[in-house]
Amino acid sequence: MRILFLFLACSFVLTSCAQNSNNTAAGSSQLKNDIAVGGTCEGCEAVFETPVSFENLNNTDTMPGFNERGPKLKISGVIYQRDGKTPASNVVLYVYQTDQEGNYSTRSGAKGWGLRHGYQRGWIRTGEDGTYAFYTVVPASYPNSNNPKHIHPVIKETGKTAYWIDEFVFDDDPLLPATEKKRDRPVGGSGLLKPVMKDGMLHATRNIILGLNVRQYQ
Q: On the CB side of 15, how many CA atoms lie within 13 Å of its CA?
């Protein structure tokens, strides 16, 4: 009986190790054998908190707060490979933002990075044409601050650690400094959005170039 118990215990340990072999380490923004790029990226591990597996993500997502009050907004574009011309497939884009009070509010059952990033977040995975889109509402600036309104993006390429690119910011935001509108070395390409009203909704475009001005990019 003792031998049987030891055998079952060892089998359980081996099975657990096998199941976790491709998971992220605690506090990590990478999978096993990923090449480290982008430097320190606090919170980038949130990209792995997808409600479904990467393989089942779509190239379009709707943020949980889209049907709440606030200006409706569609952001779309193409994610390109480093040459800036070839569409990049199988790239995961994770985004999160404040609510209409400027807070990263949470909902019941929140866990992981959802406790800090709030419920206004989404995940997108590009197809062969590199296109992406997400529907949201225009975020609010932090309460009692001069911080411009923005949306945080994280990129996860196959074989590389997750990394930050420049935030999505708004050209018509009075809090946005002029220097932010003309950045010399935008990371991932310019994040400056110029929303246009169409069919009762704001539309904005941002194309992203993988690795552009990203530190240690290989």
A: 6
Q: Counting Cβ atoms within 10 Å, is residue 43 exposed (0-12), middle (13-18) or buried (19+)?
A: middle
For residue 7, pLDDT beyond 70: no
Residue 81 lies in a domain: yes
Mean pLDDT calculated for residue range 21-43: 75
- The residue among 180, 170, 155 whose CA lies nearest residue 203 is 170
pLDDT of residue 116: 97
What is the reported pTM?
Answer: 0.87
Report residue 91 as tokens: 């790239």
Among the ranges given (5-19, 102-116, 135-149), the one the predictor scored with the smallest mean pLDDT: 5-19
d(CA 25, CA 211): 24
Does some domain include residue 168? yes
The number of distinct structural domains making up the chain is 1
Domain with 89, as residue range(s), is 29-209
R_g (Cα) of the chain, nearest Å: 20
